[in-house]
Amino acid sequence: MDKFELTNAQFEQAVAECRELFGKKLHDYKASWRILRPSALTDQLFIKAKRIRSLEIKKESMVGEGIRPEFIALINYGIVGLIQLNEGFADTVDIDNDEAMRLYDRYAHEALELMKKKNHDYDEAWRGMRVSSYTDFILTKIERIKEIENLQGETLVSEGIDANYMDIINYAVFGLIKLKK
Predict the structure, then answer these.
(1) Whole-prediction pTM value?
(2) 31 and which of 7, 100, 122, 160 could share a cystine (Cβ 3.0–4.6 Å)?
(3) Among residues of the chain, what percentage have pLDDT more than 70?
(4) Do residues 160 and 137 lie in contact, with contact meaning Cβ atoms separated by under 8 Å?
(5) Under 8 Å CB-to-CB from 166, ≥6 apart: which residues?
(6) Alpha helices in 96-150 (DSSP H)
(7) Closest by alpha carbon to 145, among 10, 43, 2?
(8) Quick one: which of 122, 126, 165, 130 has its CA closest to 144?
């Protein structure tokens, strides 16, 4: 198995772990996230990333939950962001759990395929990075999303919100893998 095959397997395992939790939360809450407007979803991503940064700096959690669950949340909310961006938000839960999982799988697959292509082009550079850098890059991507939302999508040269969601998912997967070691 070459290094890219190993990494691809790690990417797939990380996304599978996130999918499992997503399915369990669907059971408990249904697709309640369907009501999230773009700005609320951005703020949800923001609080998850800020909590990671806070824990990295303080080295202590007062509620006993670590960084890894927050990376999982960033991945799942990033996928929800892609769904909402393409499907729009709703005033009520308008899809059943099977449809929610189908949408999850579609956008998770797109993110996973992009991650594999980027990993090939960047030649495993993420392995030499610090987890705290992933956190900072995620926060930067969230700030970019906020600004694109403020500009109502009228950008001059930047990638869109979807590309930023993909990058957030990508960096969070890296963090999830590195923290599993």
Answers:
(1) 0.94
(2) 100
(3) 98
(4) no
(5) 78, 82, 110, 111, 114
(6) 97-122, 131-150
(7) 43
(8) 165
